[in-house]
Design a protein that fits this description.
Strands 1, 2, 3, 4, 5, 6, 7, 8, 9 and 10 form a 10-stranded mixed beta sheet that branches. This protein starts with a helix and ends with a strand. A hairpin with a 4-residue loop joins strand 9 and strand 10. The protein is 14% helix and 50% strand. It has 1 helix and 10 strands, in the order αββββββββββ. Bound molecules: copper (II) ion. Copper (II) ion binds next to strand 8. Copper (II) ion (CU) binds next to strand 8.
């Protein structure tokens, strides 16, 4: 009886330890907004990526850069309305507190996707990599969608 309990406690401790060490934010519900009425040519167009990044870890996490094989350049931006005009600025670091989420949505935080290397159609999927300050990185899958009418 006691041995079984001790084993259970040992197992629980083991998995907790592994969890906090390996825990990383997760990217979910990723999507890319295709521009209306245009085929996304491989040159000159910019697209925007949205989704959410959940940090279900006991430690904060900071995203310091982003990249993708599908784009020459990927950057985190934030849109804000200043004096009635929507402006966007680069977000060099995005800090996620423990149990916090960042929501990337039209009119707010977003991924600016520049210099596409391939033509995307609705349903196309691309992988975007998020580099963390601690040297690790997490991958997120983003699906191209037509904008809502
Ligand atoms: Cu932007």
């Amino acid at each position: 009886m006691h041995i079984r309990l001790a084993l259970l406690v040992a197992l629980a401790t083991l998995s907790l330890g592994a969890c906090s060490r390996d825990c990383a934010p997760q990217v979910r519900d990723g999507w890319i907004r295709l521009l209306p009425g245009s085929t996304q040519s491989a040159s000159g167009s910019m697209q925007a990526g949205f989704g959410r990044i959940d940090n279900r870890c006991p430690m904060p996490a900071t995203i310091v850069s982003t990249s993708s094989a599908a784009y020459g350049h990927v950057a985190l931006h934030e849109s804000k309305v200043v004096d009635g005009v929507s402006r966007m600025r680069a977000v060099p670091e995005l800090r996620l507190a423990p149990d916090d989420s960042a929501v990337l949505q039209p009119g707010g935080l977003h991924l600016m996707l520049m210099e596409p290397t391939a033509t995307l159609k609705p349903g196309s999927r691309v992988v975007i990599e998020f580099m963390l300050k601690d040297g690790r990185s997490v991958l997120g899958e983003f699906e191209a969608r037509k904008p809502a009418p």
